[in-house]
Amino acid sequence: MDQRIDMPAPGQGISDEEQARLERISGELRAGIEKLGDIGPAVSIFGSARVPEDSWEYRSACALGRRLAEAGVSVITGGGPGVMEAGNRGATVGKGRSVGLNITLPHEQLANPYLDIDLAFRYFFTRKFMLIRYGMGFAIYPGGFGTIDELFELLTLMQTGKLAPCPLVLVGDSYWSGLYNWLVRETADRGYIERQNLDLVEVVPDEDIAAQVLLDALGR
User: What is the Cα Rg of the chain in Å?
Assistant: First the structure.
């Protein structure tokens, strides 16, 4: 799956291939906006696709999704297995709206079965835009490169004023505390970021505190 956008040589117009890519990008954004435009209060849950059903991450994300749904807050995830499935499953149990924004990968990531709205994206950046655009709060569970990328995208957008500050919780202090302490020691203490930038994120031990932070911020 080629996600490069090659620039035309000077004096050349847009090639047919590039025009087709632009139309695909526009189509993904349009489909997402049309489907999610009336979603109402929503929280996006991020985390690893690889955790099993009996893991604490799965059980916690399921409980959080249910708590949010019961409070009238929609749950948005990346639509796949693991933490994403757990968040959507909890939203379904809580009789709330459950949204999955899946990504087409070479090794196909199938959508989980707990979705009211199921959208598939070719491009990571259009999918990420939708995951962020309609979330009024964010819960991030342990995960790999994709999860960490989403975390730092959110922090960058809020730090630069491109996204209004909103509740952002890292669930699982045993996993996230090392990263948070590294940010304090290596980025804030060295002056690469302002120390108050770290106030944009809160490390919490479990879904109970995560739900309290998110729902309080949303007035629920």
Answer: 18
pLDDT band at 118 (very low <50, low <70, confident <90, very high): very high
Of 180, 155, 170, nearest to 203 (Cα)?
170
For residue 163, name the pLDDT band (cuts at 50, 70, 90): very high
Residues 6+ apart with CB under 8 A from 92: 69, 98, 114, 116
In terms of Cβ atoms closer than 10 Å to its own Cβ (0-12, 13-18, 19+), residue 130 is: buried
Find all residues with CB under 8 Å of 187, minimum gap 6, and list them: 193
Domain boundaries, the chain: 42-217
d(CA 141, CA 214): 14
**Phi-psi map region of 125: left, alpha, beta (phi>0 left; psi -120 to 50 alpha):** alpha
Of 106, 101, 108, 104, the residue nearest 87 (C-alpha): 101
β-sheet bridge partners, residue 98:
75
- The percentage of the chain sitting over the pLDDT mark of 90, rounded to a whole number, equals 89
User: Span 42-217: which CATH code?
Assistant: 3.40.50.450
DSSP secondary structure letter of residue 209: H
Q: What is the pLDDT of residues 6-42, one digit of tens each?
A: 655 555 688 999 999 999 999 999 999 999 999 999 9
